[in-house]
């Protein structure tokens, strides 16, 4: 797990002190055993991450301030993923002010010679805004998100490297999307539409964002608006000449939705089939095709489509929405649906990542 | 006749099949750069060069078939992934509320949970409301031949909901079970239909125009997208919707061509108001006071449609005038003690001949001299007007006081009917002509002597008549 870091300097320095010394060649240069942490996160083994963090702390394996912060970010994220929001909040409370000098490189010149700036991982600021919402204090969370947006925009005004500007701009879009998501969850559609409009009219027309606009319009019932948005997406993608499969499938899936709302389920199924042929892991196409089959009175095939996707590509197909749909179909199809659902539930328990919310099986 | 459910081979299972919705959740996806390093690291030029490739090589490859990790639940591929709407559709999770004007749609599955085949299945589905029983499905002419053990027969029913209150979906099956015994299975699924909207109307008559204000309130649990709200006037009426001017800033928005803000009425008490201007068609007469109906069409998730119309909306009866007197033109500059001419038009709005007429300025009750008087003959004669006919004439007037003055009391008298029509209102606002009879009378620099002479002359003329 710990690969030996190339020692370019003669000074005997621990692997996770100033990363600059090792020119960022491996993840472990960035923080203590980071490769392992990242690997566990990819697998969805959030409980294992909790163990690892707690062990590192109790055995005092973390030697630098930035190690502590990285580990803090991982533990708060893990607890949030596991829906243990109160514990996540408690962990985060150990940092009372992100902007304090305690979290700046220049406060520790012996550890980080010639380095300055904030060492706070941005995810901590994001979690700090998200957790109040998860704990039911909506107003506080929303205020924090808007303050975070201000903070990010403030960073954009300072002259950083090109990469730095790009990163902060991505963070700006990320925060706005989080705010939109929050309003969307509360069915505050007019606000969402205004925010999306703000993102789109910023100059660069992102087809993915425009497609999301079409989805929101469709959700509220503005079918004409959705059609305009989807047409524009198709035009943008064909004009750019990109043959990226992801974007081509996006266009197909949008077309399928237009067929679906017009109740032409057969054409929708055809579009979804095209998507799956291009990309066998397009789980949105797979799930939505199964829904169309139900409206075509073909409950048996809709069940088959979902079950086969779980068998074939479990790591993308295993999501809570697909399972909810499958369980609804089981409840309709089988008088003894509890048995069928229990079988599914047992399989999920063996295969699913730690953060999978198994209440979706309603078993 | 009907056997207990436990001994039945068949059972109905029902799922409401309104349109699906997009799943919205908070996906908790992160860009690895926001997790594994401090937020300001990219300010360092060395980090800016080396970190991105390191991150990309280890962490951000999109999953492929060989990747058995759940990284798609963790890594942010695109900042808009945190939007939380991936496009995944989710089936209706509960029966939900059903509203008047919607379509009730249901997936019905007949399951054979026995170990034997059942045969000759006659299926009927009916909707029982407080007032009637509507047949939805009846296959008695072509019964289902068989359903194997553990098998199913599915069908979908649609019903436009047109009544309020208790509804029961009655599903019945008549079949031969494994023993050849003919069995009857009735099952009942109850639901209540509620009113999605309420409409409050106000009718106001200003001069001869009727205004109808309608306020639509949403009583449902979701927002309603107003697809179409139209007022259908009664035969003698015509209606025009009055809309507020759009705010200037909205017009200049660069994304205008992409995105038009929708008309969305919020759930649980949100309202929207509409204003209509109604006018009686020229040849009509309002015998009844029925104005018309409001047709409302809305949509909810993924375009699920609903449609209602109000009952007849009543207004106060308006009798149109038989005679219309319009001011066509008033001179722009009117000077004290100088005669001026006002161009008027008289229209006969009936289908019979009216007149001949006399026109004069009626006297005020007060003894004060009127500010504006007829100059010359105090009564003007007008000839008969044919049905729907019109005639122009001029009144020669003179102003005796300065400032803003009104011409009051223009009276039209029908000589044959011996009928006086209401004086022309002081401020006219009928149809296309907006001509105030409010005049500004200016003083003019005259030779004093000449002025006195002129008035003397006018006064003499009067005395002669």
Helical segment count of chain B: 3
> Unreliable stretches of chain A, pLDDT < 50, 5 or more residues?
1-17
Identify the overall geometry of chain B.
flat
Give me the secondary-structure category of chain B: mainly beta
> What summary fits the major beta sheet of chain B?
6 strands, mixed
Oligomer: heterodimer
**Coarse shape of chain A:** globular
The secondary-structure element order of chain A is: HHHHHHHHHHHHHHHHH
**Alpha-carbon Rg of chain A, integer:** 24 Å
Estimate the mean pLDDT confidence of chain B: 82
Gap between N and C termini of chain A, in Å?
Answer: 39 Å
Q: How helix-rich are the residues of chain B, as a percent range? A: under 10%
State which percent range the strand residues of chain A make up. under 5%
Keywords:
heterodimer; A: 363 residues; 17 helices; disordered N terminus; B: 465 residues; 6-stranded mixed β-sheet; 5-stranded antiparallel β-sheet; 8% helix; disordered C terminus
Summarize the structure.
Chain A: This is Trafficking protein particle complex subunit 12. With 363 residues, chain A is an all-alpha fold.
């Amino acid at each position: 797990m710990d690969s030996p870091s190339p020692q370019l300097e003669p000074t005997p320095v621990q692997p996770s002190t100033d990363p600059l010394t090792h020119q960022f060649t491996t993840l472990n240069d960035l923080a203590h055993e980071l490769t392992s942490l990242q690997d566990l996160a990819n697998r969805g083994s959030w409980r294992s991450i909790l163990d690892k963090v707690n062990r590192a702390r109790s055995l005092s394996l973390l030697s630098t301030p930035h190690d502590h912060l990285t580990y803090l970010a991982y533990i708060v994220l893990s607890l949030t993923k596991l829906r243990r929001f109160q514990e996540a909040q408690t962990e985060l409370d150990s940092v009372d002010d992100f902007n304090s000098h305690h979290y700046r490189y220049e406060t520790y010149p012996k550890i980080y010679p010639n380095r300055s700036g904030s060492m706070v991982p941005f995810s901590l600021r994001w979690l700090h805004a998200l957790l109040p919402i998860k704990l039911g204090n909506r107003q506080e969370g929303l205020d924090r998100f808007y303050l975070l947006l201000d903070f990010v925009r403030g960073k954009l005004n300072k002259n950083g490297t090109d990469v730095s500007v790009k990163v902060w701009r991505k963070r700006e879009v990320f925060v706005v999307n989080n705010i939109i998501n929050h309003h969307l969850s509360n069915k505050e559609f007019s606000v969402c539409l205004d925010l999306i409009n703000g993102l789109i009219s910023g100059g660069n027309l992102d087809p993915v964002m425009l497609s999301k606009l079409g989805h929101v319009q469709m959700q509220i019932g503005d079918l004409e608006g959705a059609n305009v948005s989807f047409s524009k997406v198709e035009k943008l993608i064909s004009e750019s000449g990109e043959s990226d499969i992801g974007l081509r499938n996006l266009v197909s899936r949008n077309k399928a939705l237009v067929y679906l709302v017009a109740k032409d389920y057969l054409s929708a199924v055809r579009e979804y089939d095209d998507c799956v042929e291009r990309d066998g892991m397009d789980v949105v196409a797979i799930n939505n095709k199964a829904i169309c089959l139900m409206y075509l009175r073909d409950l048996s095939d809709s069940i088959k489509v979902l079950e086969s996707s779980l068998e074939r590509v479990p790591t993308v197909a295993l999501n809570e929405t697909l399972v909810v749909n499958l369980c609804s179909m089981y409840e309709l199809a089988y008088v003894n649906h509890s048995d069928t659902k229990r079988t599914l539930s047992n399989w999920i328990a063996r295969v699913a990542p730690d953060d999978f919310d198994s209440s979706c099986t309603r078993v | 006749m009907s056997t207990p459910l436990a001994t039945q081979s068949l059972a109905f299972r029902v799922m409401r099949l309104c349109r699906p919705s997009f799943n919205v959740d908070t996906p908790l996806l992160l860009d690895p750069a926001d997790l594994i390093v401090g937020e300001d690291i990219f300010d360092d030029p060395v980090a800016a060069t080396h970190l991105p490739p390191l991150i990309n090589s280890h962490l951000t490859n999109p999953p492929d078939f060989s990747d058995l990790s759940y990284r798609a639940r963790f890594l942010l591929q695109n900042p808009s992934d945190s939007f939380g709407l991936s496009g995944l559709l989710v089936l209706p999770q509960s029966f939900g509320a059903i509203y008047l004007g919607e379509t009730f749609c249901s997936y019905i599955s007949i399951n054979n949970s026995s170990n034997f085949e059942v045969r000759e299945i006659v299926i009927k589905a009916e909707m029982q409301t407080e007032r009637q029983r509507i047949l939805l499905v009846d296959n008695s002419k072509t019964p289902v031949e068989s359903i194997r053990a553990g098998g199913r027969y599915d069908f979908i029913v649609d019903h436009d909901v047109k009544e309020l209150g208790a509804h029961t979906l009655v599903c019945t099956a008549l079949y031969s079970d494994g023993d050849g015994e003919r069995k009857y299975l009735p099952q009942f699924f109850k639901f209540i239909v509620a009113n999605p909207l309420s409409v409050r109307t106000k009718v106001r008559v200003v001069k001869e125009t009727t205004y109808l204000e309608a306020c639509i309130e949403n009583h449902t649990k979701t927002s309603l997208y107003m697809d179409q709200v139209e007022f259908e006037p009664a035969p003698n009426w015509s209606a025009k919707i009055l809309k507020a001017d759009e705010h200037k800033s909205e017009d200049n928005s660069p994304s205008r061509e992409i995105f038009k803000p929708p008309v969305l009425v919020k759930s649980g008490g949100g309202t929207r108001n509409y204003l209509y201007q109604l006018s009686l068609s020229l040849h009509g007469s309002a015998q009844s006071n029925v104005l018309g109906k409001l047709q409302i069409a809305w949509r909810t998730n993924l375009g699920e449609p609903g449609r209602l119309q109000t009952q007849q909306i009543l207004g106060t009866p308006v009798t149109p005038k038989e005679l219309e007197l319009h001011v066509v033109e008033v001179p722009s500059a009117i000077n004290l003690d100088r005669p001026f001419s006002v161009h008027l038009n008289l229209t006969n709005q009936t289908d019979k001949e009216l007149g001949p007429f006399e026109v004069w300025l009626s006297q005020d009750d007060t003894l004060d001299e009127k500010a504006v008087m007829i100059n010359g003959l105090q009564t003007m004669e007008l000839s008969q007007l044919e049905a729907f006919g019109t005639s122009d004439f001029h009144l020669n007037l003179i102003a005796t006081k300065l400032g803003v003055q009104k011409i009051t009391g223009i009276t039209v008298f029908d000589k044959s009917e011996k009928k006086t029509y209401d004086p022309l209102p002081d401020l006219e606002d009928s149809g296309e002509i907006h001509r105030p009879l409010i005049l500004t009378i200016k003083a003019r620099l005259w030779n004093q002597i000449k002025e006195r002479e002129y008035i003397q002359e006018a006064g003499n003329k009067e005395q002669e008549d």
